[in-house]
Design brief:
Blueprint (H helix, E strand, L loop, with lengths): L11 E3 L1 H4 E5 L18 E3 L2 H6 L3 E2 L4 E3 L1 H5 L9 E4 L7 E4 L9 E6 L7 H16 L12 H5 L3 E3 L2 H44 L15 E4 L1 E3 L11 H7 L4 E3 H8 L3 H13 L10 E4 L1
Parallel strand pairs: 4-7
Antiparallel strand pairs: 1-9, 2-8, 3-5, 6-7, 6-8, 10-13, 11-12
Length: 289
């Protein structure tokens, strides 16, 4: 058969059935929700949704088969690669425990010499998913059949190369994780700095998304006063508001009349102070309510 492209020396094209045990899960009994299949629950039952939500490792389940349920199904070993073929198409993850799954999930257990390399086949499925979606008919519930997956050609490198690929992927994933974590921390620090600056300058306290607190018996008030009245053509909405209200107003009231987000209000306040249209606000005072 034709192959997609030439592989490096030592690599070979192969299909799932040639590389280990490959087959659909089983759920022969009808109706599928017959109570005797589940009571008493003993054996974990993994559904397509749990495969799709798991990321890379299936670590949760929400149903258990009884002995009767197991008799009409099959128990797959920990480390099985699970691939969905109905509803959620071509999602894949590795089974983190022994479990059954229905015929809407396909299982792959690599041959003995490849059993500790199942993650390589998971990576392959992640990269092949978009192409497999093209085989799903445009019906209300998309699905692909076992024959489609059985025909998929997989580039299989030597074991040493698989190990090198997996190590490199682990390093890349670690670096990506560190980058995301660092960016998240930077954004969090930046937000806190903005809030602290706004609160210091205007007396407007920014509500934190933390544990709810009782309303304080005091409130922060900082007066914003008009400086040099702006030209009518100037973009000075805050100064314009103050002109209409005797030249001064609490920062909180001014913000509410401005009607924008707090960050936009703060930026506009800085601009108008810089032009001299507003006087530099004094530090907020604490007033009893």
């Amino acid at each position: 058969a034709d192959t997609p492209f030439d592989l490096p020396k030592g690599w070979a094209w192969a299909r799932f059935p040639e590389l280990g045990v490959f087959g659909r899960g089983k759920s022969k009994h009808r109706p599928r929700n017959d109570p005797k299949l589940f009571s008493p629950g003993i054996y974990p039952l993994v559904q397509t949704g749990e495969v799709s939500r798991s990321g890379n490792l299936i670590s949760e389940y929400h149903s258990k088969y009884s002995e009767v349920g197991l008799a009409q199904s099959k128990l797959w070993p920990e480390g099985t690669l699970c691939i969905t073929i109905a509803a959620n198409i071509a999602d894949s993850a590795i089974l983190g425990f022994e479990a059954c799954f229905p015929d809407s999930v396909v299982g792959f257990v690599p041959a003995k010499e490849l059993q500790d390399k199942v993650e390589y086949f998971l990576i392959f499925m992640k990269t092949a998913r978009e192409k497999l979606l093209a085989f799903a008919p445009s019906t209300a519930q998309k699905n692909i059949n076992l024959q489609i997956l059985e025909s998929v050609l997989i580039p299989v490198p030597p074991k040493e190369e698989i190990e090198r690929i997996l190590r490199r992927m682990s390093e890349i994933n670690y670096l990506c994780g560190r980058t995301v974590e660092s960016r998240s921390k930077s954004l969090g620090i930046g937000k806190l700095l903005v809030e602290a600056t706004v609160s210091t300058l205007t007396g407007i306290a920014i509500e934190q998304e933390e544990e709810p607190m009782k309303a304080p018996k005091t409130e922060l008030v900082s007066l914003v006063r008009l400086g040099t009245p702006p030209d009518v053509k100037a973009q000075a909405p805050l100064a314009t508001i103050l002109v209409r209200h005797n030249g001064e107003m609490s920062a909180k009231d001014l913000w509410q009349r401005f009607g924008g987000e707090i960050d936009a209000f703060y930026a506009q306040l800085k601009t108008e102070v810089a032009h001299g249209w507003l006087m530099e606000p004094t530090p907020a005072e604490m007033l009893e309510k």
